[in-house]
Amino acid sequence: MNNQIDSLIMTVMADKQGPGGAFMVAQKGKIIYQKAFGKANLELGNNLTTESVFQLGSMTKQFTAVAVLLLEQQGKLKVSDHISKYIPDYPGGDKITIHHLLTHTSGVKDFTKMKALAEIAQKEMTPKMMVDFFKDEPVDFAPGERFEYNNSGYVLLGYMIEQVSGEVYADFIRQHIFVPLGMEHSYYASDRQVIYNRAYGYQKKEHGYVNKTAISFSVPFASGALMSTLGDLLKWQNALSQNKLLNANETTKAFSRYKLNNGEPVNYGYGWHIKELSGLTVRAHGGSIFGFKSMGIYVPGEDIYVVALTNCDCNSPTLLAENITKLIITGTVKSK
């Protein structure tokens, strides 16, 4: 099966001298496949390895959602709370709940769709400055009326984590998630900090590869600013499966499908898409940030976890991760 996975990956990662990706398949908490393809740094010619540190983009939302549930578990908030309880001056905050933010059903304007984003993309922003940036924009719909993927909601969640815990978001994630789980190669992203085994991000233009567009990580913040490795993400998934961080009740909340006001189902829990793949329910989430794309898929029924991390936003790992998952599912089902 390893050869089949290799050939699936090599059809997408054909350029061995270009940026590439790192891939992992785990079953029952143990790695059954792990390999890296392509270069970590084109200037130096360094190869990517299975220990390379990648930016996760929106896979960050999993960590933000679990941080919120940790605070609920500690009795410091409830997901049914209105956001006005924590941000009193937020327009319409008495109608928007934390649940709405977690499930992308708040109707708040997504800051990534605002034309003014270019003006702040490279500025150092505080969480409050980020919230102020989009809070007066007209809402797209009333809370609970629709599902529309939304980065602003997770910026608001990061801000509330700080308000409730009294800790900076990056410190909260490190102290309450990374440190307890031994995720020693996971970070709040930085272009200045020396990060060993860093994968450098690239974009592809007509004339070839270029270094990624620089942004201030204070802009994506709790919606997309974390970095990690294959090995650390396996520690993360195992901790979720074994209720090491969250109790069974809070874990169920993270992975439940919710409904809109009209009763229509939403295929999203708290920080994960909940969908079907080869007839099985899976929990999946990807990420995209300048120079990087990521995808993680977990199949609870088979305890299979597939992760694909790439260091060029020209290589989308979504379909690749799904095809690898289908291959493993088919093999697993056959072997039973």
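The record above closes out task 2.4. Task 2.5 opens with a second protein, given below.
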Amino acid sequence: MMDQSGYLPEAGFFSFVAGSCTNAGLLDAASTLLTKGSRLGCCIEPYAYNYLLNSLIAHGRAQDAVALFESWIQDGLYSPDVWSFNVVIKGVCRMGNFQKALELVERMTEFGCSPDTITHNILVDGLCRAKQVNKGHEVLRRLQRDGVCMPNAVTYTSVISGYCKAGKMEDAMSVYNDMLESGTRPNTVTYNVLINGYGKALDMESAVRMYRQLILRHCPPDVVTFSSLIDGYCRCGQLDDAKRIWKEMGLHHIQPNVYTFSIIIHSLCKQNRSAEALDILRELNMRTDIAPQTFIYNPVIDILCKGGKVDEANLIVTDMKEKGCHPDKYTYTILIIGHCMKGRIPEAITLFHKMVEAGCRPDNITVNSFVSCVLKAGMPNEVDQIMLIASGHGLASQKVSSQQSRRLDISVAV
């Protein structure tokens, strides 16, 4: 169009093609197009630049986004709006450069922009995530004092979350009370943060009180609400209460997610309640909307192996693989030691070979425990090969001794 026909595309065309490139993940091409269009005198709308900057940050390229933004305004290629600054301030906050973020806030007036509630929310959230919650709280206090740009539920919740993560529940509740006094309505996220904070502090009485407040204020509980309550009860060792909340989820027509399953299965296994853990695992296997994760299966496999139920553990691994979930280093280690404890050294050696062939490099704990079991079984000749394979110098597919080969007719479901 430009080189052969001498036709200069209009600003809308540049925006459209740059947006298409951004959608396709061709972020550098989008940047080149916008820069070229601007240099050719096209007055491209700020939203096209903002969309690209936001995409760069979302793809982990915050530094590139900030550099591009600064080069554009330095060259006078476009006039940023409030959204432009909010996007870039979010980027520098992710980089942890809060001084730069504050400088950008100060520069907004140069372009006729004023920081809005979203600007302050980005700053407060960034500070709190960086464990500078006191500074985040100070920004909140300044907003309350100035009264020009009022904080909203997101602002308060970010500070509450920061204090909860730091284990400062009294400070979190103080901000919550300020929130109520200001007339700002807490939402489900606010209560989830407090419930989770009290659960981690092992204060389930306060966590339940927050849950009741959530219900009284007609905030709909979600899967995070119930997962936080279940996690809190599990941390306190109150598994019966955790299971009661599990059932209560169903009354609200809320399905547990993969993390809810993980929390309760891990806790049941810790208390040696393998039958109940297996029931929950079967429930998970019936869900077609959840992709099972290895870290959920491993505690069940471990408790079965420790209880001498190695064959049942093998069946769990079969179920895992049928669901497209492959054993990891911990799965293999659990199974190897489990087979050793049952005196099934040849099967354990086969599992060790499979572990290495699968790309799961055994660590020192696995190797030392395995070697100890092999030596106790009176098979010193196998130790050198195990150590060689573990060091990466041996072949995992190397055949085992003829004496072992005769004993490997026992099926191992991995």
